[in-house]
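Batch manifest, entry 17 of 40.
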Amino acid sequence: MLDIRFLRENPDLVKENIKKKFQDRKLPMVDEAIALDQKRRDIQAEADQLRADKNKISKEIGKFMAQGDKAAAEEAKQKVAAFSKRLAELEEEAPKVEEELRKIMLVIPNIIDDSVPIGKDDSENVEVEKFGDPVVPDFEIPYHTDIMERLAGIDLDAARKVAGNGFYYLIGDIARLHSAVISYARDFMINKGFTYCVPPFMIRSDVVTGVMSFDEMESMMYKIEGEDLYLIGTSEHSMIGRFIDSMIDETALPLTLTSYSPCFRKEKGAHGIEERGVYRIHQFEKQEMIVVCKPEDSMDWFHKMYSYTVELFRSLDIPVRTLECCSGDLADLKVKSIDVEAWSPRQKKYFEVGSCSNLGDAQARRLKIRVKGDDGKKYLAHTLNNTVVAPPRMLIAFLENNLNEDGSVRIPEALRSYMGGASVITPKQ
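Output type: structure tokens
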């Protein structure tokens, strides 16, 4: 969410930013917000003047009474009553104007970084760099669930009976591999100096609106019926929410955290839920990284964070590339975002396995996450988040890139201690 003062002073810049994001329908909102802001300030000014006049005249009533001037005293009382009536009207109107302004400000997109490429949608995202040599083996790579089934590692049919499409049972070596990847990612981030956390898996509505845009909320979040609680779509939501309405001492920054959680998503939209796959599903687990830092440090942390994901995937012998999200593909709160994509030998292309985002002070403004500097000045923190790994999607890349011709799957050295020392997983059928 933008600072209303910034919008008031830079309306053309805000409108240009909206155009860059190809959201022209929101252009009138800038003028609406400015008008509401002016109305709010006019109400405040009038109310302040009425209170001052009311206090002044109220003091005169006693003086008139002492002088025996009942007519003047009565006239003063009538003025005070009129002032009180008008004040009551203004006090009733003010929160309505404030709420209307807030609703508009919540949907006006954040100002994107100058380095973000301009494009309408994800088809215009820009490749930044490749890491590792993408290989297509001489033998055929089966569909990922076929690989898992040959390893007796997945049961989609039973999950469909129990919960419907978008769910799965992971079994045996595949279930262990899933947990091994999460544990390895946890330790990998701890070794990078991040503090490990397990957050709440449900959050209140004020945190939801603080961490994400309304479009994301509608397409992602599951609400708990009858309660002010939502299942998290990623642990970033509750991790950033931890600092709601807080004042952080500048000496404590940066806060570098890595968190584990299950994630729950509606996955509404044209892409839909896969019936026989685990790429797009309603439930999965993820290791995340979150940074809260000073504004001047956020871009440095942005580049560090996605480089950690690249490093982790390369340690598991998975070729990856980084892809910069264009303006039209950025969620409204984001300043800049880079996806990490893994190589799929079966599809002969890369697919998304993680996303790194710099949100500037947008979440901090909504959630009132402030920093107190050494000089006593207060300012809003910057927040960032990035996927470390998110199996089972990550398992697709792992299985395809480590599959042997006989159907067995090689376990890279970095992961073997988490798999009981095993160097290979062999087919069960």
